[in-house]
Specification:
This protein is mainly alpha-helical. Among the domains are: 12-50, no CATH class; 89-181. It is built from 3 helices and 2 strands, in the order E-E-H-H-H. The chain has helices at residues 31-56, 72-127, 138-171; strands spanning 11-15, 18-25. It has a two-stranded antiparallel ribbon with strand order 1-2. Helix 2 packs antiparallel against helix 3 (138-171). It is rod-shaped and about 85 Å long. The N and C termini lie far apart (150 Å).
Length: 205
């Protein structure tokens, strides 16, 4: 007489981290129990991986909108902007004045050097009693040629710089030509226009 095969009852497994959670494990002899047990174990292992990853995700940053000041703060803010703009404009005017004043000084230096050469040429001519250049000595003729070449070069530099100076003055309403228009700390009034240097002698200076 055959006896019925006894099936062992399922065994429950408890987890220390989750005291209120347990899983029933069926004996391996049961095909159905084996599949259910494998499924439960796989799901439990996946939860252990997903949960820490979700906890590790950084929180989204909170964006704060920066609003302009209102009331008295807005007025103080506008005054600060106005003062800053005024300082920038004053600094820019000072830079333009310094540039024009530097050009004016360079023009004056070029005119002085040209005048010194003209004096040297006049002295050479007086030493040769105003005679034609061909009758001068070889040394005097050579000195005259060198001085004259240098004078032509200086006049060319002067006239190019004067053209740039005059163009800027006319385009910007002749700034800094009145003492009341000078930037703070400046004392030299600039010329409205600078005449070019030519070989023509003028009676009026």
């Amino acid at each position: 007489m055959k006896t019925a095969k006894q099936v062992a009852p399922p065994r429950r497994v408890y987890f220390p981290r989750f005291p209120h959670f347990s899983v029933s494990l069926f004996p391996s002899s049961s095909c159905f129990g084996s599949k259910v047990t494998s499924f439960l174990l796989a799901a439990l292992a996946l939860s252990f991986v997903v949960l820490p990853l979700q906890a590790a995700e950084p929180a989204a940053p909170v964006l704060k909108e920066v609003l302009p000041p209102a009331g008295a703060s807005a007025q103080a803010h506008n005054r600060e902007l106005s003062q800053g703009q005024m300082q920038d404009q004053a600094h820019l005017r000072r830079l333009h004045y310094n540039r024009l004043a530097s050009q004016s000084q360079e023009l004056a230096s070029l005119r002085y050097r040209v005048a010194q050469i003209e004096k040297s040429l006049a002295a050479l001519s007086a030493r040769n009693h105003g005679a034609a250049l061909e009758s001068w000595s070889k040394g005097d003729r050579r000195s005259y040629e060198l001085l004259h070449r240098n004078m032509v070069s200086l006049k060319s530099q002067h006239n190019q710089l004067a053209e740039s100076y005059n163009t800027y003055m006319a385009a910007n309403g002749y700034p800094f030509t009145d003492r009341r228009d000078l930037p703070r700390g400046a004392s030299i009034v600039l010329h409205r226009h600078v005449m070019p240097l030519t070989d023509v002698k003028h009676f009026l200076h």
